[in-house]
Design a protein that fits this description.
Strand order of the largest sheet: 1-2-3-4-5-12-6-11-10-9-8-7
Largest sheet: 12 strands, mixed
CATH topology of the largest domain: Aminopeptidase
CATH class of the largest domain: Alpha Beta
Helix content: 25-40%
Structural class: alpha+beta
Shape: globular
Low-confidence stretches: none
Number of domains: 2
Number of helices: 8
Order of helices and strands: EHHEEEHEHEEHHEEEHEHE
Oligomer: single chain
Number of strands: 12
Distance between the termini: 24 Å
Strand content: 25-35%
Bound molecules: coenzyme A
Length: 298
């Protein structure tokens, strides 16, 4: 371990210190959003995060100087499990020892063959990743919208908007994720427990458009972070795409968040997903950050 940096396992006792680190990094103008302890707790509860079993923290002189969030999941269409990694460390040379040590800890997580993905917001990791055989594979636009929501457009005839009712809607919504989202985004593992987790934060909603009582689209809203609402997982069944359903769901999600006092809303979208990028731009989002995802196959 270089320059006195020590990597150790994460425990729930570290939640406050990790949130504090993220806040400091955001203050250092790195593209890191603050994370509330309650939101980190939600994240840990996701099946792919397994309670933070594969999370790590880096310490130097008894102080927390870096964190690693790692998730592992399997996808129907990929023969190998996927390891997804995000690192947090101070910018520039000051954070290099922590970045290298955490990245090596991430690479050591899987004794078996896995497909690896590392998020690199701000390009801080590019050189460290290239030296380990990673190359850029995907750009994710982080888009933000401020101000009053737009008027909600009319839905095509025979469709109606309502809140999701779980578990009754669970199978239909999971099948929408499988048909709509995976085809467009390339990944997006989701299980019933993940869907339920979407509704756990106070005020979170899942809005559904249905036709003949069957959901044909949905969107989730997460009012989890201070002053920032999140529009998440917009999905429209392939057979009704292009008919205005996605637009209505995005507009309705903006209204749901505005009613809860969120004047600022964020969405993450694959830059190659031209339809979704156009939709979000049309309803007033602008790109405020680009996260590059680097990949390495075994
Ligand atoms: C992205 C998605 C939600 C859009 O839903 P949709 O119901 O097809 O979209 P809409 O019919 O409401 O169209 C909304 C806007 O998208 C754009 N759009 C729609 N179809 C398009 C196409 N084929 N090419 C380019 N732009 C298109 C248009 O800008 C349209 O705006 P307009 O009404 O002013 O013309 C849907 O395609 C989908 O579920 N895709 C897979 C999942 C996904 O990628 N989700 C987004 C994750 S961030």
């Amino acid at each position: 371990m270089s320059q006195g940096v020590r990597v150790r396992g994460f425990s729930t006792d570290d939640i406050a210190a990790v949130c504090d680190l993220l806040r400091r990094l955001g203050g250092a103008r790195l593209p890191v959003e603050p994370l509330e302890p309650s939101h980190l707790t939600e994240l840990l509860a996701r099946p792919a995060h397994a309670g933070g079993r594969d999370f790590r923290v880096a310490e130097a002189s008894g102080e927390l100087v870096g964190a690693l969030f790692a998730a592992r999941y399997t996808l129907a269409e990929r023969p190998l499990p996927v390891r997804e990694v995000r690192l947090f460390a101070p910018p520039g040379d000051a954070g290099e020892a922590a970045r290298s040590a955490l990245l090596d800890a991430a690479l050591a997580l899987d004794p078996d063959r896995v497909f690896r993905r590392v998020q690199d917001p701000g390009g801080e990791l590019t050189q460290t990743l290239a030296a380990r055989g990673f190359s850029p594979a995907q750009s994710v636009w982080v888009m933000t919208r401020r101000g009053v929501p737009p008027v909600v457009s009319p839905l095509p005839e025979g469709m109606r908007l309502r809140d999701a009712a779980l578990p009754a809607d669970t199978p239909a919504l999971l099948s929408l994720v499988a048909s709509a989202h995976r085809a467009a985004f390339g990944f997006g593992p989701m299980e019933a427990a993940d869907l339920e987790a979407l509704l756990r934060p106070p005020g979170a909603r899942v809005l559904v458009v249905e036709r003949d009582r069957r959901p044909v689209g949905f969107v989730s809203t997460l009012p989890t972070r201070e002053a920032l609402g999140v529009l998440n997982l917009l999905q429209v069944a392939p057979e009704v795409q292009g008919a205005g359903v996605g637009r209505v769901l995005a507009e309705a999600a903006l209204h749901a968040l505005a009613q809860q006092g969120f004047a600022q809303v964020q969405v993450h979208v694959d830059a190659a997903n031209v339809v979704a990028c156009a939709l979000y731009t049309h309803v007033g989002f602008v790109t405020t950050r680009i996260d590059v995802v680097h990949e390495r196959s075994p």
